[in-house]
DNA sequence: GCCGTCATGTAACACGTTACATGATTTG
DNA sequence: CAAATCATGTAACGTGTTACATGACGGC
């Protein structure tokens, strides 16, 4: 257990937050990052395992159980929960957002107009697919299960945002494609 | 001039793309990253200067003019433009997106309900401010200036997306705040 | 006994941020 | 002549990705 200043690093807080719901192993957490959190805060397994080790070393997590194949389940300590709350309330400095798609749109002048239009149609298709996937997911989840805890509320909020965003993206890209004059340059 | 494989690295392509419009110095480019591109692909000056040097070294940019105080203006080479087009058309693997705000929403269970509601109201306020700023910006820009080149079209598209997104965010956060039961836990 | 999944980690490298460091030119 | 702005860069460190490496357990 080592003391140390925590700067940025949302992954840490995501891990503590997930473990707050219930103890889990790195392997379990990976599934969350590959599914529900994939579009919100993706992470690789290297990162998850290393970070869990660091957090345990820093005394923000503890191993609560060990299973077969070296499986280790972690749970947050009181210090970990305190750090999570500190981060949640420190909404002042949020990490900058990046959108590679929008950057590409900004640079579309480097392509022919046909190619540019194709790119916008690609976004449109992907948004429509995302939207369908999320609608399906929303209907598939049993939001009333007891063990969902606060995610009954907050998970649903995130899904709603993602759904509205996919709709926006689909409609915007359709509109945008029409803004490009038909003649090729 | 050195050969080298280009992996991810959108900043490189952003730089080449901006220089495609017209030659500029690192200092000039920084202003773009601090204003119009701030919400799309932020970058620090360290990054910009180092990357310009690397790109010139790799033969993707050339220095076209030198001015006072060591000012250097860059322009893309044919190789640079080719690399830009390659990247534009390689829409398959886009960088993963991250949203710290949504991650926080997912973790709101760590706070009291009053605090959670406050956070959503904060998002609402910020979105409204962003929206106002972008509306003002859109009216302030002279979209018909000749030297805007393709940004007359594509810059406007990005602005339109950002505007719709701010509206979505404002409306969603208002809705979300209402989803939290009034009693404090 | 074979295969799929469970399960954990290390090392090297790419990308991004912060702090440090320096100095010339213009404008009032 | 003072202050603001112009202008460039290096070093250290934090964060994220990819490739490599290993092996146990469960079901058929």
TrEMBL record, chains A, B:
Annotated Pfam families: PadR (PF03551), Vir_act_alpha_C (PF10400)
Assigned keywords, A-Z: DNA-binding
InterPro entries xrefs: Tscrpt_reg_PadR_C (IPR018309), Tscrpt_reg_PadR_N (IPR005149), WH-like_DNA-bd_sf (IPR036388), WH_DNA-bd_sf (IPR036390)
Record domain Transcription regulator PadR C-terminal: where: 97-179
Domain Transcription regulator PadR N-terminal intervals: 16-85
Top-level division of the source organism's lineage: Bacteria
Molecular-function annotations in GO: DNA binding
Signal peptide: none
Gene3D superfamilies documented for this protein: Winged helix-like DNA-binding domain superfamily/Winged helix DNA-binding domain
Record protein name field: DNA-binding PadR family transcriptional regulator
Organism: Kutzneria buriramensis
């Amino acid at each position: 257990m080592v003391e140390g200043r925590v700067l940025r690093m949302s992954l840490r807080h995501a891990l503590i937050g997930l473990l707050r719901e219930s103890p889990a192993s790195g392997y379990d957490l990976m599934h969350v990052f590959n599914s529900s959190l994939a579009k919100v805060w993706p992470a690789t397994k290297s990162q998850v395992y290393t970070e869990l080790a660091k957090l345990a070393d820093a005394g923000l997590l503890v191993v609560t159980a060990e299973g077969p194949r070296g499986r280790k389940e972690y749970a947050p300590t009181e210090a970990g929960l305190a750090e999570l709350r500190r981060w949640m309330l420190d909404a002042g400095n949020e990490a900058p957002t990046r959108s590679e798609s929008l950057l590409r749109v900004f640079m579309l002048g480097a392509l022919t107009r046909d190619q540019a239009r194709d790119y916008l149609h690609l976004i449109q298709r992907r948004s429509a697919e995302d939207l369908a996937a999320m609608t399906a997911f929303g209907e598939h989840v049993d939001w009333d299960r007891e063990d969902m805890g606060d995610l009954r509320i907050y998970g649903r909020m995130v899904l709603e945002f993602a759904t509205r965003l996919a709709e926006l993206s689909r409609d915007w890209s359709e509109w945008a494609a029409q803004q490009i004059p038909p003649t090729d340059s």
